[in-house]
Amino acid sequence: MSSALQQVFAHPVSLKDVQTHFCPGCQHGTIHRLVAEAMDQFGVQDRTIGVASVGCSVFLYGYFDIDVVEAPHGRAPAVATGVKRACPDKFVFTYQGDGDLAAIGTSEIIHAANRGEGMTVFFVNNTTYGMTGGQMAPTTLPSQKTSTSPYGRNVANDGYPIRMAELLAQLEGVAYSARVAVNTPKNVVQAGRVVKQAFETQIQGRGFSFVEVLSACPTNWGMDPLTANARVAEEMIPYFPLATFKDTSAA
Amino acid sequence: MQKRLLVKGNEAVAMGAIEAGCRFYFGYPITPQSDIPEYISREFPKVGGTFIQAESEIASINMLLGASACGKRAMTSSSSPGISLKQEGISYMAGSELPGLIVNIARSGPGLGGIDASQSDYFQAVKGGGHGGYHTIVLAPHSVQEMYDLTMLAFDLSDRYRVPAMLLGDSVLGQMKEALIPHPYVAPADLPAKDWAVSGKAGRAQRVVKSLYLGDGELEAHNWKLHRKYQEMRERETRCETAGLDDARLLVTAFGVTARIAKTAIRMAREEGLKVGLLRPITLFPFPDKAFADATARAKRVLCFELNTGQMVEDVRLSVSRDADVFFYGRPPGAGSLPTPEELLAQIRKHYKD
Fold this sequence. Notes:
The structure holds 2 protein chains of 2 kinds.
Chain A: H1 28-42, E1 48-52, H2 60-63, E2 67-70, H3 76-86, E3 91-97, H4 98-104, H5 106-114, E4 120-125, E5 128-129, E6 135-136, H6 155-158, H7 164-169, E7 174-181, H8 185-203, E8 208-214, H9 218-221, H10 225-239, E9 243-247
Parallel strand pairs in A: 1-2, 1-3, 3-4, 4-8, 7-8
Antiparallel strand pairs in A: 5-6, 7-9
Helix pairs in contact in A: 1-8, 3-5, 4-5
Chain B: E1 5-8, H1 9-19, E2 24-27, H2 35-47, E3 50-53, H3 57-69, E4 74-78, H4 80-95, E5 101-106, H5 122-126, E6 137-139, H6 144-161, E7 165-170, H7 171-175, E8 177-180, E9 208-209, H8 218-236, E10 240-243, E11 250-253, H9 256-271, E12 276-281, E13 283-285, H10 289-295, E14 301-306, H11 312-319, E15 325-330, H12 341-351
Parallel strand pairs in B: 2-3, 2-4, 4-5, 5-7, 6-7, 11-12, 11-14, 14-15
Antiparallel strand pairs in B: 1-8, 6-13, 10-12
């Protein structure tokens, strides 16, 4: 083999070589990979402690080859606070869905962010409760049909989808907050950059970092994977704009 | 000469925790236990501890879960309504086999109730207050000295069995001052290493702290494992105080604050020539059932005295000799409902038979 040959694409070391339980067209796998690639790049796999939440992402420890603590539903930022305070030299992250983070765990995420806990939060927004079968989430779009909004989300009754990345960016303790999507190759590359920015924020000790990732859920949206992917661009991005809302390193 | 301090019960808990090496406290203000976070927030900076006043009781128990998962001695404290909020996290800690100290300076209920001393949280404490069928270690101090001593013991037992421990006090024990003789903490030499704690997987295989078991037979096996630990604790860790059992015709049993009243009433009864003994459970879980069986092999009458309408009495009835009679006297907690020794003495006279 010529020494000029260089491997440019490989399975991330931080990600186990196993099949996931995710549905066809689900984007958790892509998001897992982006986080694992950042872990590899910064060389922090051996000093990372992940905090798993409740929902489709609950099997975090089955896919990432890292130490993991499982948190009760919505409580991952509080658990991660205990972990980070006990182990301040470790890389600590949570990985949470929209029901977990923006409904039952709203208090925990806001106060962990406001304290400026030196953790990184990956927030997967797919506008539905995936694991429990597609119920209405705090991020479900107006008029979107789910199993508990069968006539479509009625904002007069159910209120409005929450834009968490913008909301958290208002807090003094937050050093980095951004929203990305993984629906196109270009967006995946951009998402990878943002994930690495968030890692860097923690590694440099600048405070709380937050990455919201828009994600497709074909199964619970009742769509084939390609249609679901198209919905991310057509319906989600207009309501949940892709942007970096706060980056204290730029200041 | 030994140093004697005049100390509040709540402060004795905080002092015992610091002495036992606890350096992580997570809590939320609630009467009548706020002296604990106040003391710790003042003293922790001097010893390099981490104090967080959390946004809620729910957050504080989960911060405790996180710090404990890293192998650290950690605690939270609250009072009854706040302890209800922590039950989710306690269940997860039990399921994840995480040690940690939860202090309940109990107040009266249900609901907002009041701030007076109460023993109405007995069931919640000893029967597993959250979902899923588990136990916590429950220690019941009855003096300021025991608030200090049992806090240390709670950490040791919790670490040994990887079972969360609760110190169950009440408003009177938390707020009263009496003499405390502080003593250095000595860690048991045989405490197992925390070879399950997360720290990043450098140099070893991945570690996972979790309570989710979905594989065929996994959860049943996990629950049998927990059950074996509870059985082992029942065999090895029960503790109680006894007095006057040799000649007692009537046994008075009470824990915590009511045991103090019982001791006075028993002394008054003895002065009248009544042969009355005391059996005070110190561990409420594991319950000292053998001590009750042994004591009622002789004394066939037992008077259980509680500041509620009858909770521990159920465990007493399950523990005594079959031919023993168990009587109950209690009042629901609330302002003005703490019984007097004279009141209990009347009950002793009523149920006493020579």
